[in-house]
Amino acid sequence: MEPSRTLAQTIALILAQNGVKRMFGVPGGGSSLDLIDAGAEHNIEFILCRTETSAALMAAVTGELTGVPGIVLTGIGPGAASAVNGIAYASLEKAPLIVFTDAHDIASPAPPHQIFDQQRLFQPISKAQKRLDPINSQSEFSALFHLALTEPPGPVHIDLSAKDARTAVKETYNAAPPKQSTVSSKTSLEDAMSAVRAARYPALIIGHQCRPTPRAAIANKLANALGGPIMTTYKAKGVISEDHKNYVGLFTGAALDGEVLSQADLIVFCGTDPVEMIGGEWLYDAPVCVLSETSGLEWPFKPKVEVGGALTDSAAALAQVETGVDWDGLKIQRKKEDRRVKLKYSDTNLRSPDEIINSVSEAAPQNARLTVDAGAHMFSAMSLWPARAPFDVLKSNGLSTMGYAVPAAIASWLEERERPVIAVTGDGGMLMCLSELSTAARLDANITVIVMNDAALSLIDIKQQRQQRSPAGVRYPRTDFATTARGMGLEAWTVGAQDPLEFALGEAIDTDGPTLLDVSVDPTGYLEQMMALRG
Hints:
By secondary structure, the protein is α/β, with parallel strands linked by helices. The protein folds into 3 domains: 5-169, Thiamin diphosphate (ThDP)-binding fold, Pyr/PP domains (Rossmann fold), CATH 3.40.50.970; 186-336, TPP-binding domain (Rossmann fold, 3-Layer(aba) Sandwich); 344-534, Rossmann fold (3-Layer(aba) Sandwich), CATH 3.40.50.970. It contains 22 helices and 20 strands. It has a 6-stranded parallel sheet, with helices on both faces. A 6-stranded parallel sheet has the order 11-10-9-12-13-14. Strands 16-15-17-18-20-19 form a 6-stranded parallel sheet, with helices on both faces. Strand 9 (202-206), helix 10 and strand 10 (230-232) form a beta-alpha-beta unit. The N and C termini lie far apart (69 Å).
């Protein structure tokens, strides 16, 4: 007879059997402590973070990198509320995540202290909300675990009280993997194939759904078969190597895309989600063919044909179609170069973000991964960093949250410890997760943090300038990040506007463990960059 386990031990067993290696969080005094103990019995490491937001981001990034749901633990009330931003990231950016929150004992009176309806809080940003109890808990938790992975992936929320976590359960657990999606309609697939067959100037846009290895391989086959210009979203950067002869750059839904899309007679979206696009009017007359794991998404246009279901099937079918493409390869290459010229930071006597990104990419090891925070510096970082494989670059796109790059870098290093990580952030984003530098120091994580310091919320600043508003609410005194980082246990360097960058950069990258460079940057060219990109 199988020995009984507590609910917490049962959860940990299911996590371990499904490949979970670590959990993140800031524990409360309830069920989170039971889950930490139970996880340790199965060698599931608990990573103590400084904030619940960063913990949820680390867990979500882990889910994206591994294809196994990331796990985050929070305390009741304020702990749960503090995790919302990271859970919203997982929701909008389709990252598999399981959120455990401490809960009060349902059999006891619910005092108002720290208690509110946590399930209702998470309802808009999670696929399911459930209070687990020992009755039928194994099958319920198994279903929730696999729901987090079912297309589209996303977060699920579980309330768990300490009393229930410590109660024995006897149900036998049988793993039930999620059902695989199939192509939605033979007719729609045939219509898509006909559209490709008729096209002479097709353009291909590849999105985040294509990052897993089997889908990335099929996306490359489709790209080669179509023979036209290829663009990727921010999340899909690297799915098509930037060395590919037909790769022209990043798709954001902004004005710069028109130089390619306005000349297409068919636009094919492969694994793209509307959340990856900047909101705005769709300006192109060419018919659109959508291939997506998830059908019925809210596009800013009416697709000519939409094929929902397994991309490995639909994209493979389109890749077999014989085409008569008339694109000129040299013209495609010129489009790539023209985009780079337009996004180039204007000449300045001070240090530009272009200079910083180019210097970092030259100094970084070949296998280095880049994590990028939201902010004006992302224009240079995303356009200039060379990516040749999926997940070479990690960025929040659907939520576009600040305070992302450092937690993402820590999660990346934990998952692939032989792969160095470089986190590029602005001063505003760094201040939002500054305490996680101490987490990186405690873990001795091999990450290098580059802070582009201009003492402003520069992306908002340039929007303010564009609207001809007075400069209020976006600038502040300069922070000495290097001194702060040293106080948290990192090696750190300050690089002024006229100081040489290469020596400090080389030292930082060559140093084992976490390092930080506080680099002064000239913000005067950001507005011109944004105008070139977004119009």
